[in-house]
Specification:
With 341 residues, the chain is of the alpha/beta class. It is built from eleven helices and 16 strands. 27% of the residues lie in helices and 26% in strands. It binds zinc ion.
Length: 341
């Protein structure tokens, strides 16, 4: 079978004769992977990170969708032909967090797929049936490939962590990015007022069309000053962060007293300083968020079935993976890149 494998930092190879997996074991399903969607996590994995313990070579790809082609013994809830989204980590399924449906807090997680362990960039894979979610009939597998991270992470950040309420105001960083586009759509759907940043004037029309009410080009204007001015110095209820060091303190300045900041990323750098007096006096609440629960994937697919589809920048072939990562790094992607497998 074909597989796209990482052999070392920045060394990706398309393999044509990768051995196919054995028949699915007890409780497992075998999946013909059809699509995977790219994330900044793919860039981190490709570049190599000192703290990521992994055994190379390893299949790339951190989120994906496919079709069940075989089921193992004891699987009664899934059948051949079912279209599914796969959870992106090997959670244990038995710890307290897993039992309570807080899968991304698993106490015995065996790794993030496509980062610590083999990912979705291969034609066939076996997964525990409990870690796949059925795709509604009217959702394409290309859209569904964005459910586990592109949508699921955002669903978890906005609603489980920041508890965004209808009618609140929110600042969404990098509104044209994969998760930025999903955040705009989800917040707009419940009637929030949306402030967003872009790094290029050419993206302003794009994010406005998605539902952004106010847009700041952070390369031209200090976004924190602009947001404070646009909110008549009140600030916003929620900030959706994933940029990191470059924007962290500005993001805090955009919050109302008692406002919530939720973050899932640090593309511009992992370290910063912050004013602790401001933190407690302003009574900020800060949430770190990583991944999502199985329930969040199902909620994401429901939203897609209801017409809230992900914004796809492009649909590419496996061979174009590296070129697409470069485009992602250069912030030239509008929404999500999906790879056909
Ligand atoms: Zn667990």
């Amino acid at each position: 079978m074909r597989a796209l494998k990482l052999y070392g930092d920045r060394d990706v190879r398309l393999i044509d004769d990768e051995p196919a997996p054995p028949a699915p074991g007890e409780g497992e399903v075998q999946i013909r992977v059809r699509a995977m969607a790219l994330n900044y996590l793919d860039v981190w994995g490709y570049r190599g990170m000192a703290f990521a313990k992994r055994k190379l070579p390893q299949c790339v790809g951190v989120e994906g969708s496919g079709e069940i082609v075989a089921v193992g013994a004891g699987v009664t809830d899934r059948k051949v032909g079912d279209r599914v989204v796969m959870y992106g980590a090997d959670t244990c399924g038995v710890c307290k967090a897993c039992r309570e449906g807080r899968d991304n807090l698993c106490e015995d997680v065996r790794g993030i797929m496509g980062f610590h362990i083999d990912g979705f960039g291969r034609e066939l894979m076996n997964r525990p049936s409990r870690l796949v979610v059925p795709v509604p009939a009217n959702v394409s597998l290309e859209d569904a490939a964005c459910a586990a991270i592109g949508f699921g992470t955002v669903q978890h950040m906005l609603f489980d962590n920041a508890k965004l309420e209808p009618g609140e105001s929110i600042l969404i960083h990098a509104g044209a990015s994969g998760i930025g586009t999903a955040a705009i759509k989800m917040a707009k759907a419940i009637g929030c007022t949306i402030y967003t940043t872009v790094g290029d004037d050419s993206k302003i029309g794009f994010v406005k069309a998605l539902g952004a009410d106010y847009v700041v080009n952070y390369r031209k204007d200090r976004f924190e000053g602009e947001v404070r001015q646009m909110t008549k110095r009140k600030g916003v209820d929620v900030v959706f962060e994933h940029v990191g060091a470059d924007t962290w303190n500005g993001s805090l300045l955009c919050l109302k007293r008692g406002g919530r900041l939720v973050t899932c990323g640090s593309t511009s750098g992992v370290s910063t300083t912050m004013n602790l007096m401001q933190l407690f006096q302003q009574q900020y609440r800060i949430f770190g968020s990583f991944g999502c629960s199985m329930r969040n994937i199902a909620q994401s697919l429901e939203k897609m079935a209801g017409g809230m589809t992900p914004v796809l920048d492009s649909v590419i072939e496996l061979a174009d993976f590296e070129a697409a990562l470069a485009k992602l790094q250069d912030r030239k992607v509008l929404g999500k890149v999906v790879v056909r497998i």
